[in-house]
Amino acid sequence: MEEFQSVSALIESLKKLPGIGRKSAERMAYQILQMKPEKIDQMVTALKNARDNIDICPICGSFRENKNCPICSDMSRDQDTLIVVTSFKDLLAIEKINSYHGLYHVLGGNLSPTKGIGTKDINIEGLFNRVREGNLKEVILATDLTLDGETTALYIAKLLSSYPISVSRLAYGLPMGGQLEYADELTLAKSIEGRNFIKKEL
Amino acid sequence: MEEFQSVSALIESLKKLPGIGRKSAERMAYQILQMKPEKIDQMVTALKNARDNIDICPICGSFRENKNCPICSDMSRDQDTLIVVTSFKDLLAIEKINSYHGLYHVLGGNLSPTKGIGTKDINIEGLFNRVREGNLKEVILATDLTLDGETTALYIAKLLSSYPISVSRLAYGLPMGGQLEYADELTLAKSIEGRNFIKKEL
Known about the structure:
The structure is a homodimer of 202-residue chains. The first copy, chain A, is α/β, with parallel strands linked by helices.
């Protein structure tokens, strides 16, 4: 028996998700076929809404919903401190600890000579536009403590050295080689508290 | 920061899939947000087509596409032999070995006193309607070789004993306690070849 065309298409589509191979995609597809049509409709609606309502904030590079960035539009946040992170998931990790109330800048990746990711491929330009506006007093570099994350932090720190702002790096409370996304909340909080100033304006 | 409503809905929807917990659903959702809109559209279309084009064949209980069951409508298949399986995935497993060319009957589950699954909850009635039509010479019971699968096979075998047809059970080439879906192709083929007749009409 040939595989059904509708099912093959669904399996191919599901295989695009992270961590989903052929076998998992098949299991999912047949599970979906056994769902009530209303449940499939809910999934369809959820996907459409995600596609239509979520985009990237042109200021901070994070996701926003219905053109409203919950970070950039929140004037109760400290407007003079900014944390630079690699990804939106890192932003979420920091938001979860509830001890930081400043701004964010999401790079969308780390510089990586080995992977061919250069300065034009991540959102560094946008960061400097924000620095030039002159409202920031401190930029905290919170890229991953991996080789690529360190490279990115050092590169940005060097460029920032000519601006009259403080630049800091997350404290090395995180284990080296670790990824920010998987850090436990306490370690992450400690590493923000104990950040080391690379340059400090008085 | 609150989680975006569109993202929460998507995560909830993805969590309904088999083997997908909170953390995996989150990863998938954020992966989906980073996809090109066309890729999301493909996924939406695939889900809709699966919902609209696939349903259950009223004869054999398997899936069919556009109201056409590829098994029941294929007159080149042996019309006098029928394999009873627990699920559609078991049917697919048998189709893959390419050595069986008869009909199927998908029960949609096994009898299970412990899980409260009784004779009315699986498609046994439909099987007996087909047996009563009188075209079948042999019914091969290919339910899982687990306790529930054996219970189901024995129950059906007992009811079939009053009809003038042969009834067989998959050979015990499969390891006991094993699930048909995960059997390797050779073992599965051997177990069909070496099936043991519970009753044989000459």
